[in-house]
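Try it yourself: sequence plus adenosine-5'-diphosphate, in.
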Amino acid sequence: MSSLRFQALQALATGGERKISGYTEKKITAMFGSNVFNGRSMREYLSDEAYKSLMNSVRNGSRIDRRMADQVAAGMKAWAEERGVTHFTHWFQPLTGTTAEKHDSFFTIKSDGTAIELFDGDALIQQEPDASSFPNGGIRATFEARGYTAWDPSSPAFIMEAGSGKTLCIPTIFIAYNGESLDHKAPLLKSITALDKAAVDVCHFFDKNVSKVTATLGWEQEYFVIDETLANARPDLIMCGRTLVGHSPAKGQQLEDHYFGSIPERVYAFMQDFEQESYKLGIPLRTRHNEVAPGQFECAPIFEEVNIAVDHNSLLMDVMDKVARRHKLKVLVHEKPFAGVNGSGKHNNWSLATDTGVNLLSPGKTPRTNLMFLTFFVNTIKAVHDYADLMRGAIASAGNDHRLGANEAPPAIISVYIGKYLTEVLDEIESRVKDKFSEQDEVILKLDIHKQIPVLLMDNTDRNRTSPFAFTGNKFEFRAVGSSANCGSPMMILNTIMAETLKKFKQEVDALIEKGEKKEIAILHILRQYIAASKKIRFEGDNYSAEWAEEAAERGLSNFKTTPEALDAYVTDAAKQLFLGNGIFTDRELEARHEVMLEDYVKKVQIEARILGYIATNHILPAAISYQNTLIENVRGLKDIGLDATSYKAQLNLISVISGHIQNINDNVEAMIAARKRANNVDEMHKRADMYCNEVKPYFDNIRYHADKLELIVDDKVWPLPKYREMLFIK
Ligand code: ADP
Ligand code: MG
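Structure, out:
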């Protein structure tokens, strides 16, 4: 039987799935939100009273009482049943990195034995999933193993379709019996509340009409798409989502002909299909294009309120994965599926919006609104400066370690890019506002700031694509987030450090006002202090360069290259104070979360180590040995017919080169297994993670080096694993 690789190639050669189905509707608006219990459906299916109560809860976070919840549940059920839904589920985002659901049917049996379809307020508000095997970092001892999911009314319920099955999904938080959070959403919601309060307080310096500030998020999702049958012939892709061996193709991305190139038809059909599913779910996708690497693509929606945007990104990753199967394609959201070509990230565009319709990070048109813009702008820079290590921790994962600092993605050093014009504005404030208050202050405030900023609006080309955290005209773009990450954590951190910084800012300005300073002047002076204090985090140059790493070290900026060390930022005293003070995490929750993240790292590297050992031993060595046998037979034959050694010199050389690689692979695999065993014997999770990072992982490169060399030598016909050129270029 031919190998899976050749069966897959055969199937591709004879056609594969190439049908372009197209959207079922002419206009996107006709499908948008059709599977969402949104404002329109609520109006239609809820009484006035229930509608108002729900909207109030969505807007102001107020509680919904049991009677109202019963009404909302009844409305939701009626809406869902009309669309063929039979089951419901509490949909949540545990710390596994995926989404979780457990379906229950509406169907139940009454005490008299008759069957009925039921969905009441209790079922809507809270469920108790048997959740003892979700990651919890030791928070739930088995005797208290209950976990609860609780309805989050601020994110609308939706219908998930799978084949002909339809399920009503209710977005929920996931917490332990005592309220400790076990997911991404609960802390995110808390951070949204903290930020709202702190930002509204600061807004009141400028505008008393603001009563709510929400963080907004527009994510850009990068991903790879390859043929599913080829992917299935690679145990590393199936189990780890990335290739652990594989020589780079002769042509990679050096011709730069893929970026924004025309989208292959088969991928285009897949995109239309997952876009259609996304539109139905209310995910406002807007942009699609080819990315830099061959086989790499990106999609991005219109930005939304951060909680909904996070849910939508999690949903999208799930939808893409499911829809790809219909097209016999495989989506890879891993940060580094292929060595030698770019990896994938998820840019998180973040800003702050008021309920009066103002984007607080958009430069204003008058001196007053510009001071408001500068306030939020400078506070963001100060927040990132003060908590840079947490920002780094927020994006740490085994997958992202391959990307950060690999000259294709921002480095592990956190810095902020703001562009030439805003740098000039900040420099000027820093140099011209003096410690002492003076008449100059008024002039700077009224005229000079205003004169400078509008220039920025005209020039949006001033972009730095190497920065991990860049200002892009009216928002900050956190570019170092990994492509497989749940946006919830980085957004929760950003919201929280911003809330903390704004709180302090308000106190300091108030203190000056109490001393008799004019409000605007007081603000200007504190801003000047913040600008000076956070200067070292600003960097306008090439973040990929070696010089920057040196300069950053001189500036005293951290550069945590690996996940285990980067995660320490979560459990410093400063972090504990920050999270406790803003009502996000107790110390215990934080320690537990840290433990979960370390464990996740360990497990990922452990699985990779196992699969690499397996592939090396069961796929690569047999192929090498089989080819070597062919060579040996050839040499024997040449000898038999009486030729001398000069005529099979090349074969003899190849035989010995192959032996060398075989030996090296064998030795490194054995050493790696031994290192793994040593690490597994260590109970303390941080120590274990360090060992996996520093003692197990280094063998990966050694093994890969020899495997990739063999790939170049061994007869193509006996090589069992699909090659890079096949996965990246054949569609
Ligand atoms: P690019 O960065 O590729 O030039 P854009 O700047 O148009 O593209 O937008 C990138 C992403 O930023 C999109 O998802 C967009 O919705 C989002 N975005 C735009 N404005 C905001 C905002 N105020 N808050 C959050 N995200 C935003
Ligand atoms: Mg962008």
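One thing you can check immediately is this: The chain has a mean pLDDT of 91.
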